[in-house]
């Protein structure tokens, strides 16, 4: 038994008996179940109940056993003084508030529909599954999935917007600085994301702007901060960058002591930190006011045209030295190190769309419809989570849906939040027959 299940039962009133009674025999009439509280404090706020002949307004607390009230020390917490009903699976103890008044208790183990409990048991039965409902995911109605994934993606955008707001506060609402920091992190991808973020955070954005007039200045700054110019290689370009970095380092009093060293291990050469940092430098040499440019493109409000212009904006190449190198001093076949569409897609999905969403909210218009159209015209990411979901049922047709299933896995499946998930609810309501 799990308290989450009892939360679900109370929230959706999944009782076989409509004539609920307290342990003392008083009838209970539910006017409002209350607002589900996922933080500290009672489980449901602002419920309205008629107990006996008295109308009550207050909170509802839920436990497996009544005695859990004391195990959790609620009798000492003033936050629980406003509890008007204690809902328990098993009544094993009388419960009192801090002022020693009795709290009405509802025992539910005999008044929950058997099929609901059986579905719950099967859903949460330990089978070493990737997700609890993986055997039956293919049976989930496509209409239900479509609308649930839309909610999940908006939820994911909202969560990212909270983090962006925190960055804006730290940067005194400097949108260009925040965009640079987020782009830097995502240029590092999963392996070097933390490293590249530490590079961005090690230098004030004003220094980035002052070095964005010449490729060698910005490239030497980024590579130098990454600790990639600290050797003694006999390479002309390497020595030029090294010398230039020492000048910039002294001029702007920058330090790389807090920077996390980037990694090369298991990276394909196009993702080497040397290539990605050079491409980032090129992007800011080419577009010195990148955020303003992105907002200007988005304001056109035609999704297909926006995507084309954003791709044109972001598709830049590393400096010419890297045409014949992936690392310093090691010559390779000549090939322009231009950013691929796949990489630009990731920048669009993980950086530009969330930033535009947050900016739109600030302006009183979330641009959500436009951004959803952009995401629906962008190919889905290829990662283990998306691939696995598509094996169960093809759900990620575009980036909007691939981001949604990532949200589903990370925030619901991995945390066993099935009772808060539309798919889990469909199963518990008997709309899907578990195998």
Automatic annotation (TrEMBL):
This is DUF2851 domain-containing protein. It holds the Pfam family DUF2851. It comes from Ulvibacter litoralis.
């Amino acid at each position: 038994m799990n308290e989450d299940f009892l939360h679900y039962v109370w929230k959706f009133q999944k009782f076989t008996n409509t004539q609920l009674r307290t342990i003392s025999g008083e009838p209970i009439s539910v006017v409002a179940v209350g607002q589900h509280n996922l933080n500290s404090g009672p489980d449901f706020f602002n419920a309205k109940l008629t107990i006996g002949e008295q109308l009550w307004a207050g909170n509802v607390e839920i436990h497996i056993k009544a005695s859990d009230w004391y195990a959790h020390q609620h009798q000492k917490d003033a936050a629980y003084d406003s509890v008007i009903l204690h809902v328990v699976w098993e009544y094993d103890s009388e419960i009192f508030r801090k002022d020693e008044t009795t709290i009405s208790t509802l025992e539910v183990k005999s008044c929950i529909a058997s099929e609901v409990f059986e579905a719950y048991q099967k859903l949460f039965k330990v089978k070493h599954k990737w997700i609890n409902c993986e055997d039956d995911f293919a049976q989930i109605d496509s209409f239900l999935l479509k609308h649930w994934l839309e909610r999940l993606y908006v939820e994911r955008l909202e969560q990212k917007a909270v983090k962006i707001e925190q960055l804006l506060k730290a940067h005194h609402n400097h949108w260009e600085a925040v965009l640079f920091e987020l782009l830097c992190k995502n240029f590092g991808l999963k392996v070097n994301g933390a490293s590249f973020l530490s590079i961005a955070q090690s230098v004030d954005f004003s220094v980035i702007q002052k070095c964005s007039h010449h490729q060698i200045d910005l490239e030497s700054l980024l590579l130098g901060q990454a600790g990639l110019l600290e050797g003694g290689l006999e390479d002309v370009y390497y020595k030029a960058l090294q010398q230039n970095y020492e000048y910039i380092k002294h001029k702007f009093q920058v330090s790389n002591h807090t920077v996390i060293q980037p990694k090369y291990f298991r990276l394909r050469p196009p993702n080497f930190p040397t290539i990605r940092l050079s491409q980032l430098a090129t992007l800011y040499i080419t577009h010195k006011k990148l955020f303003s440019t992105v907002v200007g493109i988005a304001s056109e409000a035609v999704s297909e045209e926006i995507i084309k212009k954003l791709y044109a904006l972001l598709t830049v190449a590393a400096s010419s030295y890297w045409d014949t190198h992936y690392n310093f001093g090691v010559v390779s076949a000549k090939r322009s190190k231009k950013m691929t569409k796949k990489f630009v897609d990731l920048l669009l999905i993980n950086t530009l769309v969330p930033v535009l969403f947050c900016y739109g909210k600030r302006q009183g218009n979330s641009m959500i419809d436009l951004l959803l159209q952009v995401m629906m015209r962008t190919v889905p990411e290829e990662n283990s989570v998306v691939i696995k979901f598509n094996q169960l049922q093809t759900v990620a047709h575009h980036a909007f849906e691939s981001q949604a299933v990532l949200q589903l896995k990370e925030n619901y499946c991995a945390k066993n939040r099935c009772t808060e998930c539309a798919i889990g609810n469909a199963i518990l309501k008997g709309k899907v027959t578990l195998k």
